[in-house]
Structure formats: structure tokens, C-alpha cells
Write a structure and sequence with these properties.
This protein has 272 residues and is of the alpha/beta class. It has one domain: Rossmann fold (3-Layer(aba) Sandwich), CATH 3.40.50.1110. Helix content is 46%, strand content 12%. It has a 5-stranded parallel beta sheet with strand order 3-4-2-5-6, with helices on both faces. A 3-stranded antiparallel beta sheet has the order 1-7-8.
Length: 272
């Protein structure tokens, strides 16, 4: 094959169909009434959130929303003596890139808190926990075993599953350039693995309360989702203006994630 023909072949292989190519993005205003209702439902509840990395962005967004109402008390889950009344406690669990370690840390801490009337608990993996070489089924099985075991052991606490966040997919022109230079780009492959994990979470737990951060950070204001279709697979992605660095959340991104976690918590609190 001649060099020009080879270049054309590479370019053809890199051109992907975007699910959001023709979207009409609008700045979706936050539903303040809904947020106030979520906070009202959660008032007095004891909540534990185990996380890393993006979790701090989410928590900052929750603080911003709750601060306007003054109805939530925030503290670290490692506090020796947890106070009476309701609170939203969080803790850094495990290390990024080690999902089994995170599951163990969450189970240990949530179990300790559950012995003292914990109402709601959830943990989320970071995008760093599922990369292009990860086995989504293996990570999901580990996660599901942890959630299901905690639910059986502590029936008085509602454990809410969560999807895993996405990262920004490298712009198309950069992928094309890398392809021409014989260099691979793994951002697409990584989000494909995350999309596969999230599909398993949704299929298994979608019938109940679910913190779907993946959908929140890949959905535009007009309801369309940011994704690519390649080789028959739909690969979702973090939206550019929802991120500050390609993975962590910008002010609008953390607001959307915060509304989603409050919605999931409130739904679980009200769910019989």
C-alpha cells in the first residue's frame, strides 16, 4: 500500500460517529425546588460516602448546594465519636488503581458505622480504577459482592450502588495525528471499559436507587449524551465543560454530580 493510501486508511479507521455531533446544548438551570426537596428528605439522616479523587469534587458540590439551605452537617467518617443526629460523613478509601483495596476499606468503615444506626451508604470507584486494560466484569463482580454482602449483613442501612466516572476522550484531530505517527491513544479504550462496567451496574441495580454519576457527567443540557460509536460499541465520555482537567469536575460538572448524588440518596431514603 502506498503511503497516501495508508494515511487514508488510518484516517478512515479513526473517524468515529459522535452521538452528540448535532446536539443543541443549553445551560440547564438547576431545579432548586427539587434540590430543596432532596435536602428535606435527607434531613436527620446519617450518610457515609466512601471515595477518592472525583469524590472530593462531588462533595464540594453537595456542600455548595446544602450550604444554601443549611440543613446538612458534614464531617469525616474517621471521627472517633460520631455525634448524635444527622450528618453526611465521607472518607478517602483505598488507593486509586486498586479496586479490591477500596472495597475492603469501604466495607470495614461502613460496617463500623452501620453498627451505630447508619442510614445510607455508598462508594464509587474513580476513573483511575478502570483503565484500557481492565476487565470490567472482574471489577464489577468484586463491587457487586461487596455491596450485596453489606446489604445482607446490615439490612438497616441502605447501600446505594454507583457507576464509575468517565474522562475526556482525546479530541479527534489528536487521535488522527497520533494514528499517523503510529502512536496509540488509550482514552477511548479506557472509557469503553468504563462504559461496559457501567452497563453491568445499570443492568443489575437499575431497578432501585442508583448514583449514576456516569450519566450525569456525560449528558448535555438538552438531554443528549456525549459519546462515540466505534466498531459497533457505544463509548460514553465526560463532557468538556464539565471538567477542569479532563477527569476532575469543573463548577458546573460538580453541580450536576452533586444534584445526582442528592437525588439518589433521597430516593433511597424514601424507598420502602
Amino acid at each position: 500500500m502506498t503511503r497516501p493510501a495508508a494515511c487514508i486508511a488510518v484516517l478512515a479507521g479513526l473517524v468515529l460517529v459522535s452521538c452528540a455531533d448535532n446536539h443543541r446544548d443549553t445551560e440547564s438551570g438547576m431545579d432548586s425546588d427539587a434540590v430543596r426537596q432532596y435536602l428535606k428528605v435527607l434531613s436527620g439522616k446519617r450518610i457515609f460516602f466512601g471515595h477518592q479523587s472525583v469524590g472530593y469534587d462531588i462533595l464540594r458540590g453537595v456542600r455548595e448546594l446544602a450550604g444554601e439551605e443549611g440543613t446538612m452537617r458534614f464531617l469525616e467518617a474517621g471521627t472517633p465519636q460520631m455525634p448524635a443526629g444527622g450528618w453526611f460523613a465521607d472518607a478517602r478509601i483505598g488507593r486509586n488503581g486498586h479496586p479490591a483495596e477500596k472495597c475492603d476499606a469501604f466495607a470495614e468503615m461502613a460496617g463500623r458505622l452501620a453498627h451505630d444506626s447508619l442510614d445510607l451508604a455508598l462508594m464509587k470507584f474513580c476513573y483511575a480504577d478502570i483503565g484500557p486494560d481492565s476487565d470490567p466484569r472482574e471489577v464489577f463482580d468484586l463491587y457487586a459482592r461487596t455491596i450485596d454482602s453489606l446489604r445482607r449483613t446490615f439490612p438497616g442501612t441502605k447501600f446505594i450502588p454507583a457507576t464509575v466516572p468517565y474522562t475526556l476522550i482525546t479530541p479527534r484531530w489528536k487521535r488522527m495525528l497520533k494514528g499517523l505517527l503510529g502512536r496509540s491513544d488509550r482514552s477511548l479504550a479506557a472509557n469503553l471499559r468504563r462504559s461496559e462496567f457501567n452497563a453491568l451496574v445499570a443492568r443489575t441495580y437499575g431497578g432501585g436507587p442508583l448514583f449514576d454519576i456516569a450519566r450525569a457527567e456525560s449528558t448535555h443540557g438538552d438531554g443528549t449524551r456525549e459519546c462515540r460509536v466505534t466498531d459497533g460499541d457505544t463509548v460514553y465520555s465526560l463532557i468538556g465543560r464539565y471538567t477542569s482537567d479532563g477527569g476532575h469536575l469543573s463548577p458546573i460538572g460538580r453541580q450536576r454530580a452533586a444534584v445526582e448524588i442528592l437525588r439518589a440518596l433521597a430516593e433511597a431514603a424514601a424507598h420502602e
